[in-house]
Amino acid sequence: MGYGYGPGWGMGGWGGYGWGFGLMHAAVSVTVIVAVVFLVIWAVRSLAGGPHHGPHPRRSAGLDVLEERYARGEIGRDEYLQKRGDLLGEASSR
């Protein structure tokens, strides 16, 4: 028995490969599918951008100098806020 063509022929069924090959094939297939799903998710998030992705916008050198002058006490709070608003293009609230 085992030499004919029918269920269970050869070395244990499944074309002579046995159950181990079937399980390995299923595991590899699942791994490939999971990898493709993660790749698609990563690509969509990368292309979508958003507030937490990509480089940060460059700060103005003038704003850095203004903050340093305020920290050293060369200018007062009111002058700092007014000049900061000018540099950032904010409308004055006064």
Topology record:
Elements: H1 18-48, H2 61-72, H3 77-88
Helix pairs in contact: 2-3
Keywords:
94 residues; 0% strand; single chain; mainly alpha; rod-shaped
Q: What's the short story on this structure?
A:
The chain is an all-alpha fold.
Strand content is under 5%
Number of domains: 2
| Amino-to-carboxy terminus distance | 99 Å
Low-confidence stretches: none
Describe what you observe in this structure.
The chain is mostly helical. The chain folds into 2 domains: 1-54; 55-94, no CATH class. 59% of the residues lie in helices and 0% in strands. It has helices spanning 18-48, 61-72, 77-88. Helix 2 packs antiparallel against helix 3. It is rod-shaped. The mean pLDDT is 78.
